[in-house]
Design goal:
Elements: E1 2-6, H1 10-21, E2 25-29, H2 35-41, E3 45-48, H3 52-61, H4 63-66, E4 71-73, E5 78-79, E6 83-84, H5 92-99, E7 105-107, E8 123-124, E9 127-128, E10 130-135, H6 138-149, E11 154-157, H7 164-181, H8 192-195
Parallel strand pairs: 1-2, 1-3, 3-4, 4-7, 10-11
Antiparallel strand pairs: 5-6, 7-10, 8-9
Bound molecules: NADP nicotinamide-adenine-dinucleotide phosphate.
NADP nicotinamide-adenine-dinucleotide phosphate (NAP) binds next to α1 and α3.
C-alpha cells in the first residue's frame, strides 16, 4: 500500500515504521514541509497523526487532495485534567468527516500509548492487542483491518462513525486511570465468559 502520514511526531514514527517493515510505502509530512505531498502520496490510506487541536483545520485545508482517500484518525481530543475536549458536541472523527465529506474516516489506534505501537508485536500474556475500529465505509475498514494485522494486532468492529465518541471517551477514561491514578485499567473488564449472559 501507499500510505501518507500527516504529522512527523511519535505516532507517525511508530506506525510508519511498522508499516514500512510490513512492506508498505510510507511518506510522512509536517507543517514545516511535505504535508500536501504526504496527503497526495497516500492513495491507499492517510494517517492523521496530528494534535486534535490542529487536525480539523489541516484536513479542511487539504480536502481537495484527500478526496477518496481512507483517513485513519488516531487523534485523542483529551485536554488538561483528562477532559474530553469534544464533550457535548460531535466526536473528533465526526468533525474530521464533516470537513472532508468525500473521504471515508476510520477511527483506530487511539487507545494505546505510542510505545505500545512500537512493539513487534504488541502481544501481552500471549494475547495479541485488540484494536477497535469505528467507521461507516466497509472498503475503508477492510484497508485499516489489514494495517492493524500488519502490526500483529487483531481488529475489532466497534461500530460506525456515530460510535467514535465512545472510543474517544474511552481513551480519556483510560488515560485518566493509567496516568492520573497509576491504576491497572486493564483490570476493569472481566473475561468474556463473565461479561455477558451465558449463551
Ligand atoms: N503519543 C501517544 O501516546 C498517542 C497515542 C494514541 C493517540 N495519540 C494521538 O495521536 C496524535 C499524534 O500524537 P503524537 O504523539 O504523534 O504527537 P507529536 O509527537 O506531538 O506529533 C504531532 C505532530 O503534529 C504536528 N503539528 C502540531 N501542531 C500542528 C499544526 N497546528 N499544524 C500542523 N501540524 C501540527 C507536529 O509538528 P511539529 O513537529 O512541527 O510540531 C508533529 O509533526 C494526537 O492526536 C494524539 O492525541 C497519541
Amino acid at each position: 500500500m501507499r500510505i501518507g502520514i500527516l504529522g512527523t511526531g511519535g505516532m507517525a514514527d511508530a506506525l510508519g515504521t511498522q508499516w514500512r517493515r510490513a512492506g508498505h510505502e510510507v511518506l510522512a509530512g509536517s507543517r514545516s514541509g511535505g504535508l500536501r505531498e504526504a496527503a497526495e502520496f497516500g492513495t491507499d490510506a492517510v494517517l492523521l497523526a496530528l494534535p486534535y487541536t490542529a487536525v480539523v483545520d489541516v484536513v479542511a485545508g487539504l480536502e481537495d487532495v484527500l478526496r477518496g482517500r481512507v483517513l485513519i484518525d488516531c487523534t485523542n481530543p483529551v485536554g488538561p485534567g483528562f477532559a474530553l475536549l469534544t464533550a457535548g458536541g460531535p466526536a473528533a472523527a465526526e468533525r474530521i468527516a464533516s470537513v472532508a465529506p468525500a473521504a471515508p474516516v476510520v477511527k483506530a489506534f487511539n487507545l494505546c500509548h505510542v510505545d505500545v505501537w512500537r512493539l513487534t508485536p504488541p502481544v501481552f500474556d500471549g494475547r495479541p492487542l485488540a484494536v477497535p475500529l469505528c467507521g461507516d465505509d466497509e472498503a475503508a475498514l477492510t484497508v485499516v483491518r489489514r494495517l492493524v494485522r500488519d502490526l500483529g494486532c487483531e481488529p475489532l468492529n466497534a461500530g460506525g462513525l456515530d460510535r467514535t465518541g465512545l472510543l474517544e471517551a474511552t481513551a480519556a477514561l483510560l488515560i485518566g486511570l493509567w496516568v492520573g491514578e497509576g491504576a491497572d485499567a486493564q483490570a476493569i473488564a472481566p473475561p468474556l465468559e463473565f461479561a455477558r449472559p451465558a449463551l
